[in-house]
Design brief:
The protein has 316 residues and is α+β, with helices and mostly antiparallel strands. The chain has nine helices and 17 strands. The strands form three sheets. Strands 5, 6, 7, 8, 9, 12, 13, 14, 15, 16 and 17 form an eleven-stranded antiparallel beta sheet that branches. InterPro entries: ATP-NAD_kinase_N, Diacylglycerol/lipid_kinase, Diacylglycerol_kinase_cat_dom, Lipid_Phosphate_FormReg, NAD/diacylglycerol_kinase_sf, YegS/DAGK_C.
């Protein structure tokens, strides 16, 4: 039987181009029908979720045992902000997650149902929190620490995300369930503009230089881009990060590799795919490169990142 006495719903109504609002309405009704006490906390501006989380975490941590649970209703970007709000100080506080975004890669990797009714039932029937790995990164240039639920990317993927996020047609196409068209159009445009770049990686103290890195992504679970299994061997339970590096080849080569990713993860055997598993990874470039964490844009700068896993607790 659950030990939770009250649920705090952190809601991003704009996630998934309005999907968050619909899911939240359904969850509120389900909790009310079950006579379970809950409180709403709506995120209304960028960074608000971080503030809400910090405030709630401070209140929750003052009362032991932990009988109040934060439930996040939103997309991967909303969860990213919740993890940022928890930081290391409140890393022991578990959260529940009901996916309501457009990609929902974290839910897919963690085995959380995409059906909000079933996702809530997973939370309500769980007897204890489950420990899962997320990504912790340190930006030496900015001297800041950050966290990611899914992945950290530099180069091509990050530039595509940036292009797609600022597309004037993104909101409309997401409402029509055609958001993938924005991503694909951005992918084509960025491919022909983005140059390869030299990259130095250190994986568990082993150093390697790449002269023509193009797509670089670090995952804590298999998925990115709304369900593409880019790192099929990645696990949230092994204390390791998975690193994928693709050099720049032809556009058709890239499409072929993405096809291999989608259909069974056979891309890992391809000669143009560099794959590493390590407990700690560092990435360094001398070029100014786009970067992102969970689809959230980071500073446009030369990269000097140190990455490792960090445990967090999820009520699933």
């Amino acid at each position: 039987m659950s030990t939770i006495e009250k649920y705090h719903l952190i809601i991003n109504e704009l996630s998934g181009s309005g999907k968050g609002k619909k899911v939240a309405k359904k969850i509120r009704k389900l909790l009310a029908d079950k006579n379970l006490p809950f409180q709403l906390h709506k995120s209304t501006y960028p960074g608000h979720t971080i503030e809400l989380t910090k405030s709630l975490a401070q209140d929750i941590s003052q009362n032991l045992p932990l009988t109040h649970l934060i439930i996040v209703i939103g997309g991967d970007g909303t969860l990213h902000e919740v993890l940022t709000g928890l930081g290391e100080q409140f890393a022991h506080i578990p959260v529940g997650f009901i996916p309501a975004g457009s990609g929902n890669d974290f839910a897919r990797g963690a085995g959380i149902s995409k059906d909000p009714v079933k996702a809530l039932e997973q939370i309500l029937t769980a007897k204890h929190a489950k420990k899962l790995d997320i990504i912790q990164y340190y930006d030496h240039n900015q001297q800041i620490k950050g966290f990611a639920a899914n992945n950290v990317g530099i180069g091509f993927d990050a530039a595509v995300v940036k292009k797609a996020n600022h597309s004037p047609s993104k909101v409309l196409l997401n409402k029509l369930s055609l958001g993938s068209l924005v991503y694909f159009a951005s992918l084509i445009q960025v491919f022909f503009k983005q140059a390869a770049f030299p990259l130095t990686i250190t994986a568990d103290e082993k150093i390697k230089l790449f002269e023509d890195a193009f797509l670089v992504i670090i995952n804590s679970h298999p998925y990115f881009g709304g369900g593409i299994p880019v790192s099929p061997k990645a696990s949230q339970l092994d204390g390791k990060l998975d690193l994928i590096i693709l050099p720049k080849r032809s556009f058709f080569n890239l499409l072929y590799l993405f096809t291999l990713m989608i259909f069974g993860g056979k891309h890992l055997d391809h000669k143009d795919v560099y794959y590493y598993q390590a407990e700690t990874i560092s990435l360094k470039t001398t070029y100014t490169i786009d970067s992102n964490a969970d689809g959230e844009e980071l500073v446009y700068q030369p990269i000097d990142f140190q990455l490792k896993t960090s445990p967090r607790y999820f009520w699933i």
